[in-house]
Amino acid sequence: MAEKRPKLAKIDPVWERICEEGREAVAQEPLLGGLIHSSLLHHPTMERALAYRFSLKLASGEMPEQLLREIADEAYAAAPELGQAARADLVAVYDRDPACHRFIQPILFFKGYQAVQAYRVGHWLYQRGRRDLAYFIQMRVSEVFGVDIHPGARLGKGIMIDHAHSIVIGETAVVGDNVSMLHSVTLGGTGKEDGDRHPKIGNGVLIGAGAKVLGNIHVGHCSRIAAGSVVLQDVPECSTVAGVPARVVGEAGCAQPSISMDHLLKP
C-alpha cells in the first residue's frame, strides 16, 4: 500500500491528504477511530466517502441509508463535476475559515460543507427530472443542517458557507464561483411572483452574516455585502454595499473579498 501513495497523490492530492490526516487523527484520538474509518479510511475515493456521509446524515424512517447511498453513488459516477466541486469547496473552506485547520474537518464536522455537497446531489437529480426525490433531499438537508437550498438553484465551485445556520437560497438564484457567505443569509424573492425571481451573485462575492438579497437583481463580481444589509437593487462590481436598504458605501477594498474575508468598512 505504501508504494501506491505517491502515485495516488499525483492523481488526487486532496483525497490523499484527507486520508493522511485521518490516520493521524486516529492515532491522536483512538475513540474517533470508528467514525474516521467508516467515514473516510474505509473508502477508496473521496466520492465514495461523500456518498457515505450523505446517506448517513440524511437517512430517516422515510428513506433508508442504503437507498440514499445508491443515489449518491449514481450521481458521483455519472457526474465527475460533482467531485471536482466538492474538492474546490473543501479547499475554499480550508483557505478562508480560520477555524478550519485540517481537510478532514469540513467532511466530518462542518454542516455548511456537508449541506452544500448534499445540495449538489439534489441539484443533479433536479436537472434530470427526478424532482420529487430532489425535493426530499432539500427537505432533509433543511431538517438536519438548517440550510434550505432549492435544488433548482445554481451554485458554482469554491463555495464557503461559514457556520451555515439559517441559510436560504431560492429556486432561481445563481451563485458564482468562489463565493463566501456567513450564517443567516437569504437569497430570496420579494413576493409571490413566479418565474426568474431570485438574485444572481457574481464570482468572488463576500456576503456578511444576516444579509438579505431579494429579487431578480445582480451582485457584481468581487463585491462585498455588509452584515445585516438588505439588498434590493443591483450591486456594481468591486464595490461594498451596506445598510437597510443597502447602498454603495465604497470600493470592495481588495481584489478577492471572498478570499480575504475582510468584513471591515474602511475610509
Automatic annotation (TrEMBL):
InterPro entries: Hexapep, Hexapep_transf_CS, LbH_SAT, Ser_AcTrfase_N, Ser_AcTrfase_N_sf, Ser_O-AcTrfase, Serine_acetyltransferase, Trimer_LpxA-like_sf
Enzyme Commission number(s): 2.3.1.30
Keyword Hydrolase: no
Domain named Serine acetyltransferase N-terminal: residues: 14-118
Entry's Gene Ontology molecular function annotations: serine O-acetyltransferase activity
Recorded metabolic or biological pathway in which this protein acts: Amino-acid biosynthesis; L-cysteine biosynthesis; L-cysteine from L-serine: step 1/2
Catalytic class of the enzyme: transferase
Alphabetic keyword roster: Acyltransferase, Amino-acid biosynthesis, Repeat, Transferase
PROSITE patterns assigned: HEXAPEP_TRANSFERASES
PANTHER family: SERINE ACETYLTRANSFERASE (PTHR42811)
Family the entry assigns: Belongs to the transferase hexapeptide repeat family.
Protein's recorded name: Serine acetyltransferase
